[in-house]
Amino acid sequence: MVHTLVQKQWLPLSVNQAWQFFATPANLNEITPADMVFEIVSEVPEKMFPGLMIFYVIRPFLNIPLKWRTEITQVKEEVFFIDEQRKGPYKLWHHEHHFEAQDGGVLMTDILHYDIGKSVLGWLAGKWFVHQKVKQIFAFRRQKLEVLFPSAAV
Prior knowledge:
The protein is built from two helices and seven strands; from the N terminus they run βαββββββα.
């Protein structure tokens, strides 16, 4: 079953400033919870492009390492980009990042579609752990971005 998470967040940045931060793959580590033990293990350029493959190791549960590979499938500079899992713990991971100038800042919208599979094990993992973990990751991201880019900076 495909699950969808939508998160909107306004930041006191120009679209260009937000794009520069989020389109830099190395910054992903800064907005990922430490308990994920998130590590990019491939070389990443300063700027993303369609077809870019990024290899990670994450440890979301009991410090068990999981290999994860995502591909940046679409990029429209300063408007949106999409990353999709090519190998990893999900049956489907499709994450859209949208940027829109609004009220003197930028409205960022994340749209995540994910599926952990139909097996009994996948269903149990989702019910007991995965869905909550995905929500926690995005809640952490929201809080971290508020610290990195406080509204008083406008």
